[in-house]
Amino acid sequence: MTKSNLHLAVALALPAAALSGCYVLPVGSQDIAKIEMLVQQARALQAPNPSSAPAPKAAPVPAAAPVLAAAPVPVAAAPSAPAAPAAPMAIPARLYPMNEIATENGMISGTVTNMMNGKGRLQLAYRGEQMIGEATRVANDQSKGVASAWGPNGSFMSCEYQMSSPARGAGTCSFSDGARYQVHVGN
Fold it and tell me: How open is the CA angle 147-145-171, to the nearest 5 degrees?
């Protein structure tokens, strides 16, 4: 193999080795747009930088020596922004009475599952009826939201809340029988 052919082989092998890789991406409740953005960021990190110094030249190889494949060039990982948890997070919710009707039932416990995409699922037992529903963040204010739940016997609940973090918040809930509660989400 001639010296120019060897240089050509190394020049072709290095970009292929540098650009090969495996990506592990969360799949599930994450939006497809977020996954596509992560893939684009990873590709941007691997794109050659024209302002960087050229790769060092390979040492001359005697004509009788066997040709070896070039080793992959290690690429330093760029610092990334802290990622939000990919998996849904179950958070306890406690409802405290605010009027006489609510006082008859006392405190209520339930669970809110934050899906980490501005949505959540909720469940609680009210007067022996299992209620299920959902919570949604308000479009222009990611800390505020509304929640609704329904029971199979016709009971319903509606809440307004504000989150101080993905796992902590507070608000008020009104039930179809007139009961009003102060709700605390999180530990």
Answer: 75
